[in-house]
Design brief:
The chain starts with 28 loop residues before the first helix and ends with a helix. The chain has six helices and 15 strands. By secondary structure, the protein is of the alpha+beta class. Strands 10, 11, 12, 13, 14 and 15 form a six-stranded mixed β-sheet that branches. The radius of gyration is 21 Å and the shape is globular. Helices cover 20% and strands 29% of the residues. A hairpin with a 4-residue loop joins β13 and β14.
């Protein structure tokens, strides 16, 4: 069966940006690259970046960006040009002109090229940490940036701090009795017609497989069998790594919402999912930038 749409991964396994981690140790790297007119800067304002058109990021020269940004070295483009991030909080004035306006990752990420998507994800993920974690969590002293924006050194207690990534599991659940039925849930924070896959963070000392089983049991009352890993997606809201699975319910009749986080669960037939993917239904599925959408499309197409 052909899916109505086939969203590409938000960042492919080979996303064309070379993070060039070995360069981060070069003394004065950021200062040197900010003085180089050939460097390209991704400006991040809150969770948005400037667009050159509706499906491409707008990179600027370092001289176009105010000096009070939080700066970091993201890596090298395929042509060797240095890529920098200049990060501003959401409440700052618009830092640069955006020819086609500003776009948030969750809104436009699925439309970007692999290079632009990977660069935006990296810049937003690192940028959130740069803005949110200026102080040492151990002693409270203000830290000093090192490694071209990739670490913070505490001059008081000597600790080194690095950006965090929190693993989370997300799963699309197929019926035990009918392979043409998919179980989705509606979160309490959403509208009544919005449904998605089940997801949650892995707890301390917990494997991803155990996290998947626990989350679906807690949120939908269903036990799972036949877990199959399908891929991952960095998701900087705020700092997640989403690891996607397909699985099968042990007992369809056990499905029920927990009534707190999940207010509704529903078995959807393949034809209903197809209509929703095509925009011909009142049911709202996840956007094209999310791994949840990809899991649903794979299931609908029979490629899971």
């Amino acid at each position: 069966m052909t899916a109505p749409d086939s969203p590409k991964p938000l960042a492919s396994p080979r996303a064309d940006i070379d993070r060039a981690a070995d360069e981060r140790t070069v003394e004065g790297l950021l200062e040197t690259l900010r003085a180089d007119a050939s460097s390209r800067v991704l400006v991040v304002h809150g969770d948005a970046a400037p667009l050159s058109d509706e499906a491409a990021l707008h990179f600027v020269a370092p001289a176009e960006v105010a000096a009070d940004a939080e700066w970091a070295f993201l890596g090298r483009a395929p042509d060797g040009a240095a890529i920098l991030a200049a990060v501003f909080p959401r409440d700052a004035e618009e830092p640069v002109a955006a020819p086609a306006g500003w776009g948030a990752l969750r809104t436009i990420g699925g439309e970007l090229s692999a290079f632009d998507a990977a660069t935006f994800i990296e810049g937003l993920s690192l940028g959130r940490w740069l803005l949110d974690a200026p102080f040492c969590p151990a002693c409270g002293a203000r830290t000093e940036l090192r490694l071209a924006g990739w670490s913070r050194h505490c001059p008081s207690c000597g600790r080194e701090h690095f950006p965090r990534t929190d693993p989370a599991a997300i799963v699309a659940v197929t019926s035990a009795r009918d392979p043409d039925r998919l179980l989705l849930g509606s979160n309490a924070l959403w509208g009544a017609d919005r449904f998605s896959c089940f997801a949650g963070f892995a707890e301390a000392g917990e494997s991803l497989e155990a996290a998947v089983i626990r989350e679906v049991r807690e949120e939908a009352g269903v036990e799972l069998v036949d877990l199959r890993y399908r891929g991952s997606q960095a998701w900087p809201y705020p700092r997640s790594l989403m690891l996607g699975f397909h699985a099968t319910a042990a007992d369809d009749a056990a499905a029920r919402p927990d009534g707190e986080e999940i207010v509704a669960v529903r078995w959807f037939h393949r034809t209903e999912i197809g209509a929703a993917l095509a925009g011909k239904s009142d049911i709202i599925l996840p956007g094209s930038s999310s791994i949840a959408r990809r899991l649903i499309v794979e299931w609908h197409a029979g490629t899971a």
